[in-house]
Amino acid sequence: MSQDAYCNGCGSKIQSTDKTKPGFISEDLLKEKSSDELICQRCFRIKNYSETFPYEVSNQDFLQVIDKIRNEDALIVKIVDIFDFSGSFVPAIKTLTEKKDFILVGNKVDLLPKNVKHKKILSWLKIMLRNQGFDVLDSVLVSAKYGDNFDELMRLIYKYKGNRNVYIVGSSNVGKSKIINQILKRYLGAASDIVTESLSPQTTLGLIGFNLLDGSIIYDTPGVVNKHQYMHYLSRQSYKATYPQKEVKPLVFQLNEEQTLFFGGLARLDIISGETCDIINVVTYFSNRLNIHRTKTDRANKLYKDKLYSLLSPPVSSEEELPRWVFHEFRIRDNQKYDIVFSGLGFVTLRAPFHVKAYAPFVVGVYTRLAII
Ligand code: GDP
């Protein structure tokens, strides 16, 4: 086997010694395939049988990737999941983008309601980035699922890269692999998907590079896992019911003080008071498959105890042990609109002034931000 053979699906070094490790191909198959056809057994099974494999990218691997990018004058294309902006902006990604030329790509724009103006989202993204202390060259919203806005993305890449290489970076599951596959199919002549995409985190394990038309290289990189998201604590079945797969339809609830909304059995919002008025409009943006249930706050604890896994579901089974819940209290007195975000699950929008409590498992990021919509 050539020392330099790498899997085209996940970037792992090809090996024929350990079936349980990434990069495995049997010796017989290895003899038959050319290096640009090599797909390891793990990638083959993820693609064809939707299997999942709990491999971790070791810190060592990831540090090597960071070092390579840090020491190179390259263009960074930073991907965020528009549905979970802060969740896709973990510290390791900040390190990678610091002092680098970078373009911001907001992916999964197909999940937002159709009437939302892209211009508004882009200016919102700019404010978010400024708050994090970043200067971005440009930004664009895309849908890797439908291929929307890829001409604009490619125009920006070629405009800013000069003769440098390009690195696609982002937390796991923001859609990096799907973006690369769209670029390969639309602009670089690939007949089908090459990089392995999956609902599970950490499918891409090493750097996977492809030649752009001018000879520089565009790399897919391993995702940095954000452990503050629900997906790490749910079964595949629950996660599928939790994460939106198509346009989210907002629901409007008019809530009084001491009323509660449950988002499946995964999160809860209590209205403590509307401060200046009795009724608060709460608009919810969650997967259409997540059951949202309204109740009185003084009945909420009993309901949770009795109806978790049935009325309050997902989680679908008691085998999924979600970490203990904590609450986050938000009391805001101006009159702007805010989102309260349950990282990786969804968000609610309400106009201040309000006083609410948001409950979620302690590992999950719950935060407030100026309303995106
Ligand atoms: P990576 O871990 O960042 O490489 O992410 P993947 O490309 O493997 O995608 C993770 C999950 O997000 C998969 O289930 C994809 O189908 C889904 N996904 C990626 N891009 C989009 C998009 O533009 N819209 C929607 N709705 N889902 C997407």
From TrEMBL:
<dbReference type="GO" id="GO:0005525">
    <property type="term" value="F:GTP binding"/>
</dbReference>
<dbReference type="InterPro" id="IPR027417">
    <property type="entry name" value="P-loop_NTPase"/>
</dbReference>
<feature type="domain" description="CP-type G">
    <location>
        <begin position="63"/>
        <end position="227"/>
    </location>
</feature>
<dbReference type="InterPro" id="IPR048422">
    <property type="entry name" value="NOA1/YqeH-like_C"/>
</dbReference>
<dbReference type="GO" id="GO:0003924">
    <property type="term" value="F:GTPase activity"/>
</dbReference>
<dbReference type="InterPro" id="IPR019988">
    <property type="entry name" value="GTP-bd_ribosome_bgen_YqeH"/>
</dbReference>
<protein>
    <submittedName>
        <fullName>Ribosome biogenesis GTPase YqeH</fullName>
    </submittedName>
</protein>
<dbReference type="Pfam" id="PF03193">
    <property type="entry name" value="RsgA_GTPase"/>
</dbReference>
<dbReference type="InterPro" id="IPR010914">
    <property type="entry name" value="RsgA_GTPase_dom"/>
</dbReference>
<dbReference type="Pfam" id="PF21516">
    <property type="entry name" value="YqeH-like_C"/>
</dbReference>
<dbReference type="InterPro" id="IPR050896">
    <property type="entry name" value="Mito_lipid_metab_GTPase"/>
</dbReference>
<dbReference type="InterPro" id="IPR030378">
    <property type="entry name" value="G_CP_dom"/>
</dbReference>
